[in-house]
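Consider this one:
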Amino acid sequence: MALTATAANAAYVNNMNELTTSVQERTSTLICRSSGERVDVFLACNLSGITRSAAHKLINAGRVMRDGVPVRKNHRTKPGEIYTVRQDEPLDPVALPQDIPLVVVFEDIDIIIVDKPRGMVVHPAPGHPDGTLVNALLAHCGGSLSGIGGVKRPGIVHRIDKDTSGLIIAAKNDKSHLALAAQLSSRTLTREYSAVVRGAVKADTGTVDAPIGRDPKNRKRQAVTDKFSRPAVTHYEVTARYARYTQICCKLETGRTHQIRVHMAHIGHPILGDTVYGYKKPELGMSSQCLHARKLCFIHPSTNEHIELCADMPQYFMDVISKLSSMA
């Protein structure tokens, strides 16, 4: 097991008329907790996105240091050794304002809460350089977004998947961003989701307490695993039952990537339409997961007022419920 501390150069760019593609150097520090592993295997397991081949190249280039000395490729790890790894990576591209319609549920000088449509990516990422919620927020809010998320994720306090609809909160200043992040950490900012899952969920209520990490067999997916994972807890309650399907309400105690999708698939009830963690063929006309972030509760970062907001069920969700209600 390793503890990672990453120091990256700030990716601020003055020219807002074009995306930045220059390179920055990232330095990661790994503290070894086990012994006997080949150093390339150790690096591949403990550095995100690094394969053994890439680890070999870093070692051969003298970019992996052990206690201040370049490491040899045949070295085997020992507990307590400290490795410093230098990697080149592109700077985050600058997100540009785009006039994209938003459904604003709440807004003041500190925060903005949006009902995100299904199919919208939250922030620029590989394959999605623009057309995101961040691009829309930059146009709507102007320069009044928190800078803590950097040039790619200004204002973004938490995220929901591209094909998950519903409520998401963004901060307009750093003070609000830090306060909301603290609420996420202390679990006083709560989020509830509505979903339709496959099969008949037996218990009316339940909790899935299972750690989530990157899938060892597919790095593009998450999985319930004990290896390099983090605690994850999802509470669920049945709200309606249909033939071969169940509608549930999920409350997140933690906020891991794809948490509800992974947890429901783990207990044998994948979300309807989830072709990544569930069935590969679309069902009931759903080509993506039937999952909606319906409720958000938090303490306002400036007024200390308790705020509870709900989003209406989107049309795609209502269409699914209509089809299920008509099934024998």
Notes: DSSP finds six helices and 16 strands in the chain. The chain has three domains: 2-90, 95-180, 187-328. Residues 174-186 form the longest helix (13 residues).
